[in-house]
Each structure stands twice: as C-alpha cells, then as structure tokens.
Amino acid sequence: MVKENYNSDLYRTGDTSKYLKNFLYDGKFKLQSGDILDKLNIAYETYGELSKDKSNVVLVCHAISGDSHVAKHSEDDIPGWWDIMVGPGRPIDTNNYFVICSNVIGGCKGSTGPNSINPSTGNPYGPDFPNITVEDMVNAQNLLIDHLGIKSILCVTGGSMGGFQSIQWARQFPDKIKSVIGLATSARLTNQALAFDIVGRNAIKKDPRFKEGNYYDAEEKPEDGLAIARMLAHITYVSKDSMKNKFDNTRYEPKEITTEFEKRFSVGTYLAYQGTKFVDRFDANSYITLSTAVDYFDLGGTINEIKNNLKKTKCEWLLVSFSSDWLYPPFQSEEIVDALVSLDKSVSYCSIKSEAGHDAFLLENEVEDYGLLTSSFLKKLSGKEKNDQIKNSSPTSTNIFFNNRLDLDFICSLIEKNDRVLDLGCEDGKLLDELKKKKCSKLLGVELDSKKVIMSSNKGLEVINSDINTGLKRFNDDQFDITILSQTLQSIKNVEKTIEEILRISKKAIISFPNFAFKPLREMLYNQGKAPKLEGLYGYNWYNTPNRRFPTILDFQEYCTYKKIIIKESFYIDSEKDELIKENPNLNADTAIFVLSKN
Amino acid sequence: MVKENYNSDLYRTGDTSKYLKNFLYDGKFKLQSGDILDKLNIAYETYGELSKDKSNVVLVCHAISGDSHVAKHSEDDIPGWWDIMVGPGRPIDTNNYFVICSNVIGGCKGSTGPNSINPSTGNPYGPDFPNITVEDMVNAQNLLIDHLGIKSILCVTGGSMGGFQSIQWARQFPDKIKSVIGLATSARLTNQALAFDIVGRNAIKKDPRFKEGNYYDAEEKPEDGLAIARMLAHITYVSKDSMKNKFDNTRYEPKEITTEFEKRFSVGTYLAYQGTKFVDRFDANSYITLSTAVDYFDLGGTINEIKNNLKKTKCEWLLVSFSSDWLYPPFQSEEIVDALVSLDKSVSYCSIKSEAGHDAFLLENEVEDYGLLTSSFLKKLSGKEKNDQIKNSSPTSTNIFFNNRLDLDFICSLIEKNDRVLDLGCEDGKLLDELKKKKCSKLLGVELDSKKVIMSSNKGLEVINSDINTGLKRFNDDQFDITILSQTLQSIKNVEKTIEEILRISKKAIISFPNFAFKPLREMLYNQGKAPKLEGLYGYNWYNTPNRRFPTILDFQEYCTYKKIIIKESFYIDSEKDELIKENPNLNADTAIFVLSKN
Question: Is residue B194 part of a domain?
C-alpha cells in the first residue's frame, strides 16, 4: 500500500468507468500466428455522436498501459488518460467527432487477454494465451468498427504503441481510413528500446511467483518482477532533464512511502511508487504479451524497407515527435516521413521541442502544440476551412517578405495549375497559402522552426519540419515541378549541395535573394568603408546579421555557368520602388529571382 | 553455462593473475560512516619500476566491475582490463612510470569486501558489511601507498567510478598528488543514472535467493537478480548507435546460447550472455555495496557546490568525456571543468567524438585520442619536453596564420612576462606555444575542435575544448590580463556577447581580424559587382566561405564607440607586403589588431 500520492499520476488505479461497453464477437478469431481465439470480447468506449453520413469517426489507440477510457464522459466520471486531447472543445473535439477507443486484445482492461477465461478450459488462459501482434490488435478493432456499422474512419490516432496500431491500420485497411496521426512513434523499436523491454520481461519471468504464467490461482502474484519492469520502463518514458527538474532539489529527501523496494533517494521512492501502483492495475502476463507485440512490430530498418511496407497505404499522414523522447526518438519519426515522402504520400511532420521525454504526448506541457497540429489536421480532413487563431500569429520580423509583396507576387505568377510545388523555408506558409488559389497538384513546405510549422499547418498546409541543409535527400529525383528557395540563399550553410539537391528533386527551381551588389550597398563599402547595410534582408549590422553569405547577381550568374546550371528566366526588382529592373540589374536591383533548370 | 563467446568481452571471468599481491593492514580501519573494519586486505598489482626519487607513480583506479589487474604483466599473463592504456610503450608507459592498481574495498576481487571473512565472527560479512563510500576507497588506497613508502603520486587516473576515486584523491590528499586524469566521469550521477542503479539493486534484493545478503552458505546464489542488474547496467554503458551497429543486421538471429533468460532477438541473447557471465565473476553483495557508494558520491549539483568541494585541491587536471556517453554525459565533465576554471586551477578538457558510449574509455576505438591526451599530459607533468609526433600534424588550411607571421609576432610583442593569457580559438596552439618563451604566469587556450585540442595538448599546453559562443561564462571577472581573439571574429556567431564576455573576464583584449574595407575588396564589389574575395581569410567564394560576417576597421571602431569600449592601441597591417600601415588603414590594411579595455 502506498500512502502518499505523486502529482504526476497519469493513470487511475484499477477502477472502471461506468461508460465502458463490451462487444462480444462470437466467432473464431484467427491470429497472425495461425492460432485461433474462440470468441473475443472487446471493451470499448465512445464519445460524441456519429454523424448521419458516418464520416466523423476518430479511432484512438492506446499505449501499452492504457485502456479504452481515453477521457471522462461526464464530470462525475473517473479521469481518462487523454482528457487533455479528447472532449468537448478539446483538440479531438467530441462536439464534432465520434471518438472510439477500445482496449487492445492481449490487454487486461476488459478485452480478451491472458487473464480472460479460456472457453475451452473454463480457466484463465495464462501462459496458454497465444502470441499477439499489432496486426491482431488492429483486426480486433476492425471487428468492432464493423459491428458499429462504420465503413470509413476519418482518422486513426495514437502515441507509442498506439502509433504502431495507427500505422498498422493504414497498412491493413488502406481503403477504410482517411488519415493517421502518429505521435511519439516509429517504424520499429531501436535495439536500445528492445533491450529495455527484454530486461523488463526477464525480471517478470524470473520472479518465482510468476510460475511460468500460472499464477492466477495463487495467493501471491509476480508483483516484484512486474514492478521492476515498470520502474525500468518508467525511466525510459521521461527525459534526463525532466528527472533532474523533478528530483535534483530533493535528491536525499525520499518521500515516506510504504514499500519493500529501496527507499534511498527521492527518485528511488518515486520509482518504487510507480512500480507498486502499477501492479494494482496491470497483469504480468498481459504486460509480457503486449511488450512482445511491441517488440515484434517492424516496418523495417531502412527507408526502402519502410517504403515497401507503406506502399499500399492511401491515407493522409501527420507525424509528431518530441525532441527529448529518447525511447522513440525524432529521427525514427523522420524515417517514416522519409519513406512516405519518397512514396509521394501526403504527409506533415512536426518535431515539438519538449523536455518531457516520451511521455510528452500524454502530458499537458506541450498539448497546445500537438493539440493544435491535431485539430488543424482534422479540420483540413473534414473540409472545415477556418482554423483556430494562433496566439502571437502576427507576422514575425523574420517574415521573408517584410512589407514587400513584389517577389511573392512574382513567384506566384511563375507557378501554373497542376504544378507540384515544394517551398523550402516556407516560414508561416504565406506563399503556399497564396498558391492554393492556383490549383496546384501538390503543395509542400519545408521549415526548420517547429512553431512556424504549426502556424503553416493551421493554414491547412502540408509541411515537413526539417533542415534544408540536410533534409532534401528524402525527396526523389524529379518529384516536383518547381522548388522555391525564396530569400533564403544568404542564410544557407551548404549552398552547393542545396542547389544541387533542388535541381535533382525538381525540374525547375525558383531562387530569389537580395543582391549584394545593389548600388547603395556597393557605395557604402567603397565610399564609406563600412560593411554594407540596407533596409530589408541586408538591414542588419555586421555584428548581428543572421545572413552568412552575400551573393551578387553576377556571382550567381557565374556560379550557374560554372555549375552548368541553365538560367531559364531571371527577374530583377527594385523592391523599394516596386519596379522591375532591366538595365544593369547587378547595380540597380536589390532583389533577384532566377528560374533554373539542370543541364 | 554459456556456450558461445562474443568478441567484445572486456573482462576476464573469475581468473586471478599470478602477479596479484596482497597488503594486509593489521589495524582498525575507520569508515566515513563511523563503522570500523578490523584488519583490511588490499589486493594490488604494480607495473614498471619505482624511480629512485619515487616521482613516477601513477595510481590507476578501476570502475565498478574492474579489479587490480589493469594490464598483463607478461605475455603469458591473463588479459587486463586496460591493456590498451597500460604497458611498455602504451600511453601510461610502464617503461617510464610505476603503475599501481588496487581492488577497491567493498569489492570482491581480493580486497576486503562483503564476501570476506569477518574476523569477529569467522563468517563472511554478508549483509553486515558496512556502507562504503568513495572516500573510504581512497583512504584504503592511501594505506597501500604509505605501505609502499610513496610520498607523492604523479597522477591518479580512472574512468567512471575510477574517475570518482581520482577526484576524491585530489580532495582528500591535496598535498600528495600532482595530477588527476578523470575519464567519463562526473561530479555526481544524474537522477537518470541513479534511477538505473536503484532498479538494478531492487532486482538483486528481490531475488528470493538473495536472502537479505545471507547467501554465501546457500547452494544457490542470487544470480538472476545480479544478472538482471548487469543486463540493465550494460545497456547504459553503450550508446544507441553502437547497439544499432551491433545488432540491427541480426535483429532476429539470436545466438545459440544456453540461458534461462529470454532468447528472442540478438540483443536479447547478448544481454543474457553479459548477465550470465557476470554472475560467474561478481558477488551480489559487493555489487550493491559499490553501486551504493557510486550513488552517494556527490560534489554537488551546482557549479558553486562543486567549487566548494574542489577548493582545496592543488593538482593539475585533465578531464576527458565521450560524446555518446549518456550515463556520464560530457556536460557533467564540463561542470567539473567550469568549477576548476572558476577556481583558477590548472585544467585541460577534451570531449572526444565517439559512438561507443560510456564504455569508450575501455575500448580501442578512440584510444588513439585519449591515449595521446594522457601521454602528453603525463609528459608535461614529468617535465619531458618532447612530445609525440601526431599523425597529419602538418598545418591545416584553416591555420589562422597561413604563411604570414606578422600578426602573430605582433600579438606576441603585446604580451608581457607574468601576464595571464587566454587564447580563444587557439587552434593547434601555435600562438600559445610561441608565448611559452614569455614566461607568462598563465597560458590557457579554448578550442572547439577536439582534434586540435589534442594537438595543442601534445605541445604541453593547457586547453579547454569548448565553444567560444557559449563557453566564456565559466571564467571569472578579470581572471586574465589579456584575452586574445585572433582572426576569429569573422566566424563568431554572437559577436556582441563574446566581446562583452572577453572584457568581463580580462583586463585587456587583443582582437585581430581581416579588414573587409581593404582596397582590393572594396574595388571588387564596386567595380566588378562581385562578392569580395582575396587570398587569406577572405579567400573563399560567396557560396563556401566559413566566414559569417565581414567587419571593416571603421565598423569596428564605431562599434567600440557605440559600446563604450576603449581602444588602447591599434595596429594595421598589409600582410602581403608585410608592413605596418599608418595612412588610411581602413583602405590600405588587410588586417587589424586592436587592444581593447573596458570603459
């Protein structure tokens, strides 16, 4: 018994919501292993109302220790594990969407699992419960969806193991689902994550009270092993920094709890508490079953393998990772993004800055960010045009167009209907939003700043959170008709590689940049002997400019000759006077726009 | 029994080297806890010969699972745990140094520990063995040092827990040791590292065969718990990337080993093997004793606390961290460095790029780097001037002085005897090496590139591996007479902050930079309309320059006026002609040297 509570408890203990429903499938359920389950119970809950055309279904998939109770149904209901995301007015707004969440098979929260009665023996399955895969979980959920008379799901979403199920839905039922939102997930576990799971399972199996899984009749359950597995897993759910913030000030002041585990150090009693609490609400056989299913989920270890596994998917994708998540690190979400991009699927991606580690997707800290990404994405899907106002959405000082719209208008005029367009450094999506009018066949942005990715997404745009300097290799040869690099050249680290990549992935490139040989800039250096400076992108002092290079029109032309790049068109602008420059542009234009193609 | 061996085994199994010696201390040994051990055995080994003046002693401290057998004594000896570092011709060269390594008390490799016979009962101590601290380990080692008639130790070194002991030596016997080399160590564990240790100990203590530590008479030992603790610890010793490289290609091809632990996945059998092998050579009570000692080692969680604990140390320091070490991450070594710098102690630091994780200090991969750092440091200490030739030590293209020595000579001429000098961006240490002739009272370099830090160290210089943009806050107000920023200004990210910091930490600053208003550069932009370029630091193309800003002499003068910085002296050079410029320097000089002081 634990005396004292910690604030951060995410989950209830054993209680069951009175809103829990059960669906009994009275047939034979064939598993991926070939084994068959006679009858199947699926515990589930629903929120909101199914629309007449049944087009508003959101299926939420839970993580390893979750259950069907994703949120409160009413004020007097017990808390749900994702109350911050699901409910009236929440990002997954139950006023608009019909939300379904079911306990996975193999679990221990109502759906058939190792602690269920085996109809053929009258006793709990225990160790005889067959191996379950993520595919089996999805097949079971699909039975429920069929039972509810639903033909099409607007969105399947979940984090961690819930992300695995969401991805698996896209693979298994490509025609049934419109979209996936995968949070803090991956194509498969890293070997490090696998290793932690293995040690956890070994701890359970080596608990003498585990008795090879035959403990349901016994007085004592394998609580020590399960608690140790949970403690270990808990470390991997949070970040080094969040542990520091939580425990550094009270390092030697453990809370007074009753436990047989070590009570030194505040982090020690916290772990003891987490472990002890977990055994009250979870079944050891179920933990082994589910963690093994997680470990075997595998879309591949290379982009090509992942591509092969996602080839037949048809849905739109949103993937969200968290910077401090070291269990499902951002690079793993990016592997999925790379595969989807390379398959030319519709995908958005954001890596949210967070200190909370893997658990971030369950916590309030960053819910404003991933909540807004989720709600924008759902609204785009359901065709609701107007999105939420973002706080501080006023144009930032780094807005690429300042107050001058000439080169934006110019670039827009160069784009044609049905063009596939990639905008590198798309900022808050202003140019792409403008291009929506053009009926392009593809509009995609790349942006480094996650906050701007969220702003772009809120305009209903498809954006990938990535660094131009390293993130272009994910695109295929000639995947786009036009790639735009607007007023970004002067701050790019690796110019040669970037331009080479742009001309690999698109037929044409539109590159605009401020001209360093513009007359007033030249004169400033020549006559005054000072580092050139002029309102606009060269409006910084030598000591605080974010620009790292200073190309002139002539330099750029010579560069193209040297690299055998064809300049198809070029436009030179005096943005102050808002006019096109024909005569001696390298002297008279402050901005250049080049349309390039490869040799 | 494990059938198959893995290649990467670092440690032998239970065997003992025939060269092991024992020192029996026949008195009462008082522990930090107040407890007393009656008699004490210290198992130790020595290598090389003690010099006549006894000035060549290197004490090596082992990590948690190590022992006194640091290296082979002869070809037919069993392997040591640090053969790559200790031996004839090795970085800790036993032809020059007399190396001592002893098993820590509380251990199980010959020194008194929980499995030793308690003289007062005639039975093993078991759970009655008192709590041991790192201080106790050092006190015991000191008994051995006294016994060997040694009054002064040239260097105490070790990694991980061995680093803790080394640091503790500096605190406890400040007059007895000349230096510390601490590898992959810290001022204390992170809460994350603490958490892993706690889970490991819980696994041991909950093994029913542990019997609260009274298992020595029993047929079965708490092998499952100890193996699980070891598996878990092993995960933390290696990096995510090294696990990927080791296991990704054979993920589903576990080796055929005989074990009761889970045999799924290649990483699983590897862990099972590591765990199983460990119980053959280690004692569970000892593991608990030592890991608890590690957990309580604590120099503080803030720089000020660490400073307080290191205030009375008198030795020279070398700290080495490894980039992928997430158990003792580089930032923790840097905390110690910050404290030592702020205490004005002599300290060098290098963060070595490595994929190997915490174990890097035991592995061959990066031994060339940390071996050279170690040997250079030892040679500097023992006054041996000539250091090793470094491979590829020819001047690199980024050498700040190219072939021109004028501004180097100039800067040297501005430094006086007894000056305390800091060189920011010291590269391979050329300037500092030159300044040695000046008999300065302090010469310290800061350099971002770890390879250049190693080159500087090899010149016998004191260098800190750090980023100028963020690493100056560790220095105290007026800690130096002169700080030099030579030909680095143009590539600095945060100029304002850097100059502000320089003038905080030193009375005077010498800043040299290439002048962007030099006539040929002006003319190139003005007449040709091209981004200025000239042999030397502005000798790059606009698209591949590492420079990120382009100051002129006039700009810099105006900046000083604006920031109320006093220009005490200024020198302008035409480095091509090798002459000083008096007339219109902003037009005629390609290089400027400013001597600044604060207002």
Answer: yes
The C-alpha angle B500, B504, B510, rounded to 5 degrees, equals 75
Q: Which of B260, B203, B262 has the alpha carbon at shortest distance from A224?
A: B203
- Report CB contact under 8 Å: B246, A191: yes
Q: For residues B269 and B272, what is the distance between their CA atoms, to the nearest angstrom?
A: 5
Q: Do B199 and A232 touch (CB under 8 A)?
A: yes
What ipTM goes with this model?
0.94
Last residue of some domain: A268, A296, A324? A296
Q: How far apart are CA B28 and CA B506, in angstroms?
A: 52
Does A292 share its domain with A427?
no
**A292 contacts in chain B (CB < 8 Å):** 264
A198 and B271 within 8 Å at the Cβ level: the answer is yes
Cα distance from A235 to chain B (closest Cα, Å)? 7
Check: CB of residue B31 under 8 Å from CB of residue B133: yes
Q: Which residues contact B585 (CB under 8 A, 6 or more apart)?
A: B515, B553, B570, B572, B592
The domain boundary residue, chosen from A250, A281, A296: A296
Residue B120: give its domain's CATH number.
3.40.50.1820
> By C-alpha distance, which of A102, A213, A183 is closest to A369?
A183
Catalytic, A325? Answer yes
List, as one string, the DSSP characters of A118-141.
-TTTSSB-GGGSPP--HHHHHHHH
Q: How many degrees, rounded to 5, is the angle at CA B467 between CA B188 and CA B171?
A: 30
Query: How far is Cα B407 from Cα A2, in angstroms, rounded to an integer?
Result: 70
Stretch 468-527 of chain B: residues touching chain A, C-beta under 8 Å = 495-496, 516-517, 521-523, 525-526
Greatest C-alpha distance within chain B: 96
What lies within 8 Å, CB to CB, of A8 at 6+ separation is none
Condensed to tens digits (0 to 9), the pLDDT of residues B510-540 reads 999 999 999 999 999 999 999 888 877 778 8
User: Is residue B589 within 8 Å of residue B573, measured between CB atoms?
Assistant: yes
Site of tokens 């230096």? B179
CB contact under 8 Å between B235 and A530, yes or no, is no
Q: How far apart are CA B590 and CA B197, in angstroms?
A: 59
Q: What sign does the dihedral A584-A586-A587-A593 (CA atoms) show?
A: positive
CB proximity B245 to A under 8 Å: no
Domain-embedded: residue B428? yes
Residue A360 lies in a domain: no
Q: How far is B586 from chain A (nearest CA, A)?
A: 7
Range list of H helices, B255-384: 266-281, 284-296, 303-310, 330-342, 367-381
Residue A571 belongs to domain with CATH number: 3.40.50.150
B206 touches chain A (CB under 8 A): yes
pTM for this model (two decimals): 0.94
Within-domain flag for A335: no
Please give the residue range of the domain that contains residue B417. 392-597
Tell if the CB–CB gap between B192 and A235 is shorter than 8 Å: yes
Checking if the pLDDT of B11 tops 50, the result is no
Catalytic residues of B: 160, 325, 358
Phi, psi (deg, nearest 5) at residue B247: -120, -10
For residue B499, give the chain A residue with the closest CA: A543
For residues A137 and A265, membership in a common domain is answered with yes
From A301, which residue of chain B is nearest by alpha-carbon distance? B248
B530 touches chain A (CB under 8 A): yes
Domain count, chain A: 2
Res B113: pLDDT: 97
Active site residue A160: yes
Summarised one tens digit per residue, pLDDT across range B26-53 is: 999 999 999 999 999 999 999 999 999 9
Separation between Cα atoms, residue A335 and residue A350, nearest integer Å: 13
